[in-house]
Amino acid sequence: MALDFYLNFNGNCREAVEYYAEVFGAEQPKIMTFGDTPSDPAYPLPEEAKSMVMHARLTISGSTVMFSDVFPGMPFVAGNNISLSMVSKDIEEIKSAFHKLKEGGKVGMELQETFWSKCYGSLEDKFGIQWQFNYDNGEVVY
């Protein structure tokens, strides 16, 4: 199991991730935009979101640091724009931690299958810490 860091930005994520890649001598990041995601007619994507970064990641000194712009209309607070990401090959470990941490907390997204993971969810625990949970089946989709 690994705990990774996830940083959120307010529309300048591409600039930030490219900067950090240069600073730390990391490979150029693969960047997935919100516009790269499968469309859903029930939830049309605002034009201003299409070029914003949905996901990027870098390896910095052996740690995975992931990046995203906040979706237009979602709250952004500088200084609170970090979450911990539990990435595990053990889906039961993910489910157990998620269900324990959601007690007294607020679920952002229940554990569910997404186009990038068989099991993903997010929550804020009772201490205000943001968590993301992602099942790693060995297939990189980003």
Folded structure, characterized:
There is one protein chain. With 142 residues, the protein is of the alpha+beta class. The chain is 15% helix and 36% strand. An eight-stranded mixed β-sheet has the order 2-3-4-1-5-8-7-6, covered by helices on one side. Strand 6 (106-112) and strand 7 (120-124) form a beta hairpin. The relative contact order is 0.20. The model has no long low-confidence stretch (mean pLDDT 88). It holds the Pfam family 3-dmu-9_3-mt. This is VOC family protein. InterPro entries: Glyas_Bleomycin-R_OHBP_Dase (IPR029068), PhnB-like (IPR028973).
List keywords for this structure.
alpha+beta, 2 helices, 36% strand, 142 residues
How is this fold's topology laid out?
Layout: E1 2-9, H1 13-23, E2 31-33, E3 53-60, E4 63-69, E5 82-88, H2 91-101, E6 106-112, E7 120-124, E8 130-135
Parallel strand pairs: 1-4, 5-8
Antiparallel strand pairs: 1-5, 2-3, 3-4, 6-7, 7-8
Q: Strand count, sense and closure of the main sheet?
A: 8 strands, mixed
- DSSP strand tally: 8
Helical amount: 10-25%
SSE order, one letter for each helix or strand: EHEEEEHEEE
Overall geometry comes to globular
- The tally of helices reads 2
| Beta content | 35-45%
Between the first and last Cα atoms, what is the distance in angstroms? 19 Å
Low-confidence stretches: none
Decide which structural class fits the backbone.
alpha+beta
- Kindly provide the radius of gyration, computed on alpha-carbon positions and rounded to a whole number of angstroms: 15 Å
Organism: Paenibacillus anseongense
Protein name: VOC family protein
Pfam family, one: 3-dmu-9_3-mt
